[in-house]
Amino acid sequence: VTGSLGGAHPAAVAWFLLFVAATLGITWWAARRTRSAEHFYTAGRSVTGLQNGLALAGDYMSAASFLGIAGLVALSGFDGLIYSIGFLVGWPVVMFLVAEPLRNLGRYTFADVVAYRLRQVPVRIAAAFGTLAVVTFYLIAQMVGAGNLIKLLFGIRYETAIVAVGVVMMAYVLFGGMLATTWVQIVKAALLIGGAFVLGFGAMVIVGPDGIRAIDKGGNMAAPLLAEAVGGTGFLGFIAAVAFATILAVVAGLTLSGAAALSHDVWVNVVRGGEAPEREQLVVARAATLLGGVASVALGIVFKGENVAYMVGLAFAIAASANFPALVLSIFWKPFTTRGAQASMIVGTVSALLLIFLSPTIQEGVLGRASAPFPLRNPGLVTIPLAFVVGMAVSLLWPEREAAERFAEVQRRVHLGPETDES
Amino acid sequence: MSEKQRALEALARAQWRLALGLTAAMMAIYFGFTLLVAWAKPLLARQLVPGLSLGILLGALVIVSAWALIWVYVRWANSHYDATVASLREPRS
User: Between chains, do B11 and A85 touch, taking CB under 8 Å as contact?
Assistant: First the structure.
């Protein structure tokens, strides 16, 4: 049962446009409230805990789970389920070990936390470098998902679809900022909770693995295909629109992180020495957004045919290699130094990127070679321990007294929050 | 001052113990499941009812256990941790 795929579906397209118009309405509403850099990044701190929780849930019901995991479960059954459990199990551990310390430190970006007791500028440059690599790969995953979706729905070429998607996304981020992102996530999380596995196993039974592969060999279109088989083209449009809104919102959030890394960490703190007018920060953030959008369109075309959940796994591997060792060492390991942080972040990012390039995904899949020099499709197993070892070795070779002296202060804050300092 | 300091340090230690304990529990559950997948495939493949194998049930239970552990932490943080920090922060006068 593959339906009339490949051509445009009027009912589906109508639903789709309605949904996208609604989210753009939210964006417009949010744009009128985005007046300062703080509004742009953090929605003016007006988001409550529950709203934020729903938005985070929405983030993770991204193209990865909704399209990618459903596709993996549909194509590989139980193996797809195992893959998805791995994603989920990370959350409680982050909650127990990292979330509380970060909340208590009361800092704003990843670089703020790592740089807390180290020298600001060198740490920020290295952190921005890692953040941009992560954001780019995560963006590629969303672009591949969105490109397939638009191709399926409108019956246009994948490459054309990717460019169209890129343009809509950039418009959305540039005008909506964080408030729009958060609200779209909230709406979408409410719509999606509980869907991916059911849709995945359902698609395997009703549509069949061959039908799914025929549309996209990465399996990303399992959920929309099931929707069509069950509820006709109207339902296909609805599911496609939800998926697209998902991708839009995730991309918006990501692009904001990238823009924040460039304008907050690099431009303000490094280029301008800590002070820059708000208007200028917004200009830099928006220029960074444009740059990221163009890069992700180009890379989205390169990675055509990959599974979205797997692509997200690559982004996670880079993040885990670039950020995680530096974050953990700066909060929990007293001898950590500025040079150690720089070395750990740069080695983590570069080694992860290099091993991805040498992996079968690029060497065999993109370049068409017979074999790949590095056998693993995900580099994390090698690069995360490597970044830890490098960070610790460099710290021990070149000690930094001030960083060690401020460790007690970090410890107190990590457990008890900032306000207890005066007591 | 010193009594308050001691109370704060005890609280910090309690927070750390709980966080490490819950992390260890999560790791044990997840890697236990992964080891079963690696070495006890026939066991996991047993059908409990037609269409539901032991493997799928245990996979779902791993997810449920993650929620349960988070619930334990959140309950402790909301009822005990935040309240104690707040009470220790009260002005001394």
Answer: no
Element at A174 (helix H, strand E) = helix A158-192
Q: What is the dihedral sign for C-alpha A159, A177, A96, B63?
A: negative
Q: Rounded to whole angstroms, how far apart are CA atoms A38 and A60?
A: 24
State whether B56 and A97 contact (CB < 8 Å). no
Contact between B16 and A88 using a beta-carbon 8 Å cutoff:
no
Chain segment A228-255, per-residue pLDDT in tens: 665 556 666 666 777 777 777 777 777 7
Q: Which residues of B touch A93 (CB under 8 A)?
A: 23, 26-27
Structure tokens at A293: 């959008």
Residue B15: list chain A partners with CB under 8 A: 100, 415
Please list every residue in chain B whose beta carbon sits closer than 8 Å to the beta carbon of residue A78: 53, 55-56, 59
* A131's tokens: 């953040």
Rounded to whole angstroms, the Cα distance separating A69 from A82 reads: 10
CB within 8 Å: A93 and B26: yes
Question: What ipTM is given for this predicted complex?
Answer: 0.84
In our burial notation (b when 16+ CB lie closer than 10 A, e otherwise), range A366-405 reads eeeeeebebebbbbbebbbebbbebbbebbeeeebeebee
At A42-95, the pLDDT tens digits run 555 555 666 666 666 666 666 566 677 777 777 777 787 887 788 788 888 888
Enumerate residues 6+ apart whose C-beta is below 8 A from B56: A78, A81
Burial of B14 (0-12, 13-18, 19+ CB in 10 A): middle
DSSP A111: H
Pick among B1, B16, B80 to test the A interface (most A CBs inside 10 A): B16
Q: By the 8 A CB rule, do A195 and A67 touch?
A: no
Strand B47-49 to strand B52-53: parallel, antiparallel, or no bridges (unpaired)? antiparallel
pLDDT tens digits, one per residue of A313-372: 888 899 899 988 998 898 888 888 889 999 999 999 999 999 988 888 878 877 778 888
Closest residue of B to A99, CA-based?
Answer: B19
Residues on chain B bordering chain A, Cβ-to-Cβ distance under 8 angstroms:
1, 4, 8, 11-12, 15-16, 18-20, 22-23, 26-27, 30, 33-34, 37, 53, 55-56, 59, 62-63, 66, 69-70, 73, 77, 85, 88-89, 92
- Which residues of A lie inside 8 Å of B (Cβ-Cβ)? 78, 81-82, 85-86, 88-89, 91-93, 95-97, 100, 411-412, 415-417, 419-420, 423
Helix (H) or strand (E) holding B48: strand B47-49
Among the listed ranges A100-114, A268-282, A408-422, which one has the minimum average pLDDT value?
A408-422
CA dist A98 → A102, A180, B17, B47 (Å): 6, 27, 14, 39
